[in-house]
Amino acid sequence: MSQEPNVVDAAIIGAGFSGLYAIKRLRDAGFSVQAFEAGDGIGGTWYWNHYPGARVDLECWDYSYSFSPELQDEWDWSHRYPTAQELMRYLEHVADRFKLREHIQFNTRVDAAEFIEAENLWLLRTSDGKTLKARFVVPATGGLSVPKPPEIPGIETFAGEAYHTGRWPRQEPAYEGKRIGVIGTGSSGVQVIHTLAGKCKHLTVFQRTAVFVVPAKNHPLTPEMRQRVRATYAERRNLSRITRFGIPAPMPTESALEATPEERQAKFENAWVNSQLLGFRQCFGDILSNAEANELVAEFIRGKIREIVKDPATAQKLLPYGFPFGTKRPCLSDNYYSVYNRDDVSLVDLKSTPIVRIVPEGIETTEGLIELDMLIYATGYDALTGALTHIDVRGVGGRKLNDKWTDGAKAYLGLMTAGFPNLFTVTGPGSPGPLANMSMGIEQHVDWITQCMEYLRDHGIARIDADPAAEDAWMQHVQEVVSRTLYEKANSWYRGANVPGKPQLFLPYLGGHGNYRRKCDDVAAAGYQGFALTRRARAGQPVADLAGSAA
Question: What InterPro entries is this protein classified in (predicted)?
């Protein structure tokens, strides 16, 4: 006789920033939790993405947990932008400090999740052949955790070493004396390139799309720097919760077109010298809504590239065109462009010199063979939805999540998708996600989910589901907001354009972290408006549906 699966209140998938915080919040609220992690350690995105040069692109003061003042005060960040390795040490410290590991089963993937309607429970099947039932499922699977392999013939024939930045080996490879090729120049590619230049015999960069790279201005932190931030941490966090990007960055309203050329030049120079991810966004209020204003920034950065790169032909290849500045995530690096001044670094522009195939000896292009000992694929991710759609998720009536999302992912507030009750997504489609501070967004999501589960428990409600009309209205609002910007002029991973066959729909909410937080709070205060609530049946009584009105 088969053993009946254990039942927990919440099954959490993933043990990164969101998974760890979900464990803590739900456990502290009195819920039984079981988390599953595919890797053998915690870290989530940073566990998988620890390639050479991997760093976060938000300052450490903001890209960290805010729920514990004691945690903020006791952890000493070493640099303005921590490496993946330091972020993993931080998360390990969090897991140990709050005793979270005991709730995590490592080396275990969730292969399938099926909603059992008669029981209002989810049945999970894991890679170790076991099953578990949970009243709620919280996929904390991350937005950049499923690598996207390149679509190049002959990949399997390469005789040398080959790695994807999103699945970097735990044992660091040796680079000295090797001819290394890097395919891709997004954030991960830029970081790999500027890190490995000079550490190998020769580095060949295969550029698919030239990108905007602004200075990182990364630096070690002194005790005095840490103390200054700690003295204002509470104010900094409170401001971050109401701002557009979830960080204490004021956004201007004046137009770049109303400023004089001298005023624009001064602001752009300041943004370059005192650089940060949003530095150029903070110059003027219409950088991402007015094409003419955007082009002023784009041409300023192109001018910097021409100044830095000595060979005019190489500089020309590195100039980004074809999409507005900021509509693809800008990259940070203090020396990316200068590496192309080295004799041991070559640039292959794939628009003018396409790859024909990968062969055992290296890469064959339209201009001949480039021999390589190592290939690094910095080709991106099946972002935002990939991790969840790789699980066989089946909701009401056995409907597959992948079937529902055939024409594009849909979710109400990025928190639930209709037809899949009691399944909460963290920073899911329709939430600000990667267009705001992810750590702040994660805390907001998990706090909201926890409070919702407490409400359901306290009011005897067995099931919550997104109302389809509310979901449709919200996703329409998401598209309306982005239509007022320049984001739709770029084939970015924000809209799934990097994955062949993936429906192209802009998924993050551009209305801002602060506005989004207020919307979620208002929905909860109105008795979970836009959600359908089903009360737990008492003996001899029918189940009662408490349908929330559509937003």
Answer: FAD-binding_Monooxygenases (IPR050775), FAD/NAD-bd_sf (IPR036188)
Rounded distance between C-alpha atoms, residue 307 and residue 269, angstroms: 14
Q: What is the DSSP string of 55-98?
A: B-SS-TTTSS--S-HHHHHH---SBSS-BHHHHHHHHHHHHHHT
φ/ψ bin of 2: left (φ > 0), alpha (ψ from -120 to 50), beta (otherwise): beta
SS3 171: coil
Per the structure, the complete domain to which residue 126 belongs is given by: 6-146+383-547
Residue 450 lies inside a defined structural domain of this protein: yes
| Residue 168: how many other CB atoms lie within 10 Å | 22
Query: Is residue 348 domain-resident?
Result: no
CA distances from residue 294 to 56, 148, 283, 510 in whole angstroms, order as listed: 25, 30, 11, 17
CA–CA dist 76, 74 (Å, integer):
6
Supply the DSSP string of 287-331, one letter for each residue: TTT-HHHHHHHHHHHHHHHHHH-SSHHHHHHH---SS-TTSSPPE
Kindly list the distances between the CA atom of residue 383 and the CA atoms of 143, 146, 445, 466, in Å, as whole numbers in the listed order: 5, 7, 18, 23
SS3 category, 363 = strand
Please count the other Cβ atoms lying within 10 Å of the Cβ belonging to residue 529.
Answer: 15
111 φ, ψ to 5°?
A: -85, -35
Q: Tell me 380's DSSP state.
A: -
Question: Would strands 392-394 and 110-116 be described as parallel, antiparallel, or unpaired?
Answer: parallel
Number of structural domains (the chain) is: 1
**Segments of the chain with pLDDT less than 70:** 1-3, 497, 537-551
> Quick one: pLDDT at residue 389?
85
Task: Classify residue 409: in a domain, yes or no.
Answer: yes
Is 468 exposed, middle or buried (CB count within 10 Å of its CB: 0-12, 13-18, 19+)? middle
Does any domain span residue 210?
A: no
**Strand pairing report for 368-371 and 362-365:** antiparallel
